[in-house]
């Protein structure tokens, strides 16, 4: 038996958990019709197979119809969910993991124009900044109805074979009652702490009386809202003690902070560049004060930090939730002493930001997550060993090389630069985003393990590639910054990449014209403003930086607002002319009838990339498929069989930004889904 603290079993009431690592509740927005169907099952099961002790599924499954599924939540208020839950719990139990589900009523943290278009309810009329719904002030009959809804939903989950349910209190209806900031009720449910906690206690009592004792019940709650006038630390401690002393629950799952704004949410679930384990000591204080089973998750991205959390006795079970979205097989790798092979979570929060934009959660650098029905986490060996040449060692090229290497092919990668990374190297030049380099480092380590050869400082010509006598050539050369977008004066502008790379000296009075809406404009702004420049970011879009998304925007705003960067929306830069040492920027609008000027000394254009594709077009006539990819074969997971030129010497494919400017996830997904079938 291992003496690794993380691998010690834990007894939670009648349940023996096989180790100390859990996946905390999270809604990846995979439900279909509000049900956890095959895709949900496959996702959940992969983590159970990977060895996690307990997977807590369904963040925020809705118990009532007036808790509309704002991020495609599971609908726990429907009886038809029971067989779907049963299918999932049976499969997870079969793998030796425990499984719980999180239930909630979102209260004001949702929108009325979702689901059944019912008014949103809360214990006050105050709206939540993030979701914007003005709530109806909850009435006595709403309270009675929702308490019953919680008990009904818990009963369904027990019938579905769940080991227990967790109540999502923080930021949702339960804590909208507890927090003095959001509860303006009089009488039994408003006023004193006793009254503000009454709703939570009534819900717990109703559930416990329905599900009996042999069913785990826990609460995920904030023990310090970190907001003036909100639940502070001392009240949070008192709440923790009262929850324990109620005798109704079996563990506490501690959160610190508030989630009603993008900034608050980002402090609760920190992204890259923010400290690891920021609330672990706080969770430890709660455990010490209550001496009660305590769970916690908040940016514990690596095994060493998780091990410390358990070994130091700060918590009983440690959550590694996003870490398991990046690598579902963490525990197995710990057991097999292959920790160094764990694909690292880089805190990009692409996963979370997507669900708040109405999409499904995808991991920035593991495209198999959430696509378990079609994409492998473990790549199978190929039947025939082929010679594969990859051109470009950015994320797309490295993923293609990794996958091809893992399939047992002979792989060589040509890269013009002196090292791997492509655009990620530029991204990682912002100190806050340097965790992104792990996307590259992990792939390089995997490539080394699979014997992939690299030739850096090599500008691959057609002859270089042909000399390798390849069966397959994959072009992953990426793109170059595209600034040629003005009607006049393109020669006077520089690109955001020029600024980020340091190739161009920052100006003093700078206009950044951003119609790509991605990270590069904000990164350039930060470099410029930090160097002392006065910066304006202008976009023709309705809002700025639409591709950056909510939580990723937070650290930028924290920095750029302090640096007094100005944001101007709905204006289009049309042309630039030189006037002595200055540049005159002529500005119009898609809405018409406007003509303005800006006088600056530097104009930076951020307009994505254009493909670097010369080598592709040079090789195209020599290939068997003329570069064609069958979309049907790609999507259905078949080897590529297009032949347009039987005399060709090799198959030729193009992936990532060498095709068109997209993002890191798209580049890596292009590579995985092509290379897994070569
Ligand atoms: C896609 C996604 C959805 C989430 N949804 C929920 C949720 O519905 N309820 C909840 O309590 N936490 C939710 N979380 C938060 C996680 O449970 C966890 O607290 C958070 O990711 C921090 O832990 P980590 O750093 O180990 O990922 C979500 C997280 C992710 C990534
Ligand atoms: S998208 Fe980023 S934060 Fe989310 S799981 Fe992947 S690496 Fe981690």
TrEMBL record:
Signal peptide start-end: none
Cofactor(s) required, per the database record: [4Fe-4S] cluster; FMN
Pfam (any one): Oxidored_FMN
Molecular-function GO term, any one: iron-sulfur cluster binding
Keyword Oxidoreductase attached: yes
Keyword Iron: yes
Domain NADH:flavin oxidoreductase/NADH oxidase N-terminal: 6-341
Record-annotated FAD/NAD(P)-binding domain positions: 387-635
UniProt GO BP: fatty acid beta-oxidation, unsaturated, even number, reductase/isomerase pathway
Keywords for this protein: Flavoprotein, FMN, Iron, Iron-sulfur, Metal-binding, Oxidoreductase
InterPro entries tied to this protein: Aldolase_TIM, FAD/NAD-bd_sf, FAD/NAD-binding_dom, NADH:flavin_oxidoreductase, OxRdtase_FMN_N
Family per similarity comment: In the N-terminal section; belongs to the NADH:flavin oxidoreductase/NADH oxidase family.
Protein name as catalogued: 2,4-dienoyl-CoA reductase-like NADH-dependent reductase (Old Yellow Enzyme family)/thioredoxin reductase
């Amino acid at each position: 038996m291992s003496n690794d603290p993380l691998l010690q079993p834990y007894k939670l009431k009648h349940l023996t958990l096989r180790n100390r690592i859990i996946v905390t509740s999270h809604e990846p927005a995979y439900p279909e019709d509000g049900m956890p169907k095959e895709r949900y099952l496959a996702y959940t099961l992969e983590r159970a197979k990977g060895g996690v002790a307990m997977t807590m599924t369904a963040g925020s499954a809705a118990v009532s119809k007036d808790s509309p599924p704002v991020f495609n939540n599971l609908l726990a208020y429907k009886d038809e969910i029971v067989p779907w839950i049963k299918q999932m719990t049976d499969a997870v139990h079969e793998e030796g993991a425990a499984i719980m589900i999180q239930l909630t009523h979102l209260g004001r943290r949702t929108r009325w124009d979702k689901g059944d278009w019912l008014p949103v309810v809360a214990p006050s009329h105050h709206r939540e900044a993030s979701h914007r719904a003005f709530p109806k002030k909850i009435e006595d009959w709403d309270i009675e109805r929702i308490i019953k809804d919680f008990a009904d939903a818990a009963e369904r989950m027990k019938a579905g074979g769940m080991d227990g349910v967790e109540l999502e209190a923080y930021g949702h209806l339960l804590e909208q009652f507890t927090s003095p900031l959001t509860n303006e009720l009089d009488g039994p449910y408003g006023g004193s702490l006793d009254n503000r906690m009454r709703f939570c206690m009534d819900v717990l009592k109703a559930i416990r009386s329905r599900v009996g004792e042999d069913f785990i019940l826990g609460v995920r709650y904030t023990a310090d809202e970190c907001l003036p006038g909100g639940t502070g630390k001392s009240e949070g401690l008192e709440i923790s003690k009262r929850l324990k002393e109620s005798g109704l629950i079996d563990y506490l799952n501690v959160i610190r902070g508030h989630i009603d704004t993008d900034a608050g949410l980002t402090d609760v679930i920190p992204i890259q560049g923010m400290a690891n384990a920021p609330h672990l000591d706080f969770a430890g204080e709660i455990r010490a004060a209550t001496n009660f089973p305590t769970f916690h998750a908040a940016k514990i991205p690596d095994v060493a930090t998780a091990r410390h959390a358990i070994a130091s006795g700060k918590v009983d079970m440690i959550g590694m939730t996003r870490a398991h979205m990046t690598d579902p097989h963490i525990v197995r790798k710990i057991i097999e002493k292959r920790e160094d092979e764990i694909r690292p979570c880089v805190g990009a929060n692409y996963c979370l930001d997507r669900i708040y934009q109405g999409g499904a959660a995808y991991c920035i650098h593991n495209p198999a997550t959430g696509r378990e029905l079609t994409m492998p986490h473990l790549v199978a060996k190929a039947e025939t060993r082929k010679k594969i040449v990859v051109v470009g060692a950015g994320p797309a090229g490295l993923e293609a090389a990794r996958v091809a290497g893992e399939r047992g092919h002979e792989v060589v990668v040509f890269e013009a630069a002196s090292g791997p990374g492509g655009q990620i190297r530029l991204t990682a030049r912002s100190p806050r985003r340097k965790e992104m380099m792990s996307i590259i480092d992990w792939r390089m380590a995997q490539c080394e393990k699979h014997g992939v050869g690299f030739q850096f400082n090599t500008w691959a010509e057609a002859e270089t590639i042909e000399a390798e006598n390849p069966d397959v050539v994959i072009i992953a050369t990426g793109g170059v910054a595209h600034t040629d977008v003005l009607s006049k004066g393109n020669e006077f502008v520089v690109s955001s990449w020029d600024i980020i790379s340091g190739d161009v000296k920052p100006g003093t009075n700078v206009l950044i014209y951003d119609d790509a809406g991605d990270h590069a404009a904000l990164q350039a702004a930060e470099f410029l403003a930090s160097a002392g420049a006065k910066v304006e970011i202008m976009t023709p879009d309705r809002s700025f930086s639409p591709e950056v998304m909510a939580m990723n925007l937070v650290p930028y705003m924290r920095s750029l607002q302090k640096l007094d960067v100005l944001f101007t929306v709905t204006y289009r830069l049309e042309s630039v002319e030189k006037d002595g040492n200055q540049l005159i920027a002529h500005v119009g609008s898609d809405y018409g009838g406007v003509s303005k000027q800006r006088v600056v000394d530097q104009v930076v254009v951020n307009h994505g990339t254009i493909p670097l594709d010369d080598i592709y077009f040079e090789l195209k006539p020599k290939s068997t498929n003329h570069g064609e990819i069958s979309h049907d074969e790609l999507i259905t997971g078949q080897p590529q069989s297009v032949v347009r030129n039987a005399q060709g010497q090799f198959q030729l494919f193009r992936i990532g930004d060498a095709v068109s400017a997209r993002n890191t996830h798209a580049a890596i997904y292009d590579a995985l889904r092509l290379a897994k079938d070569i």
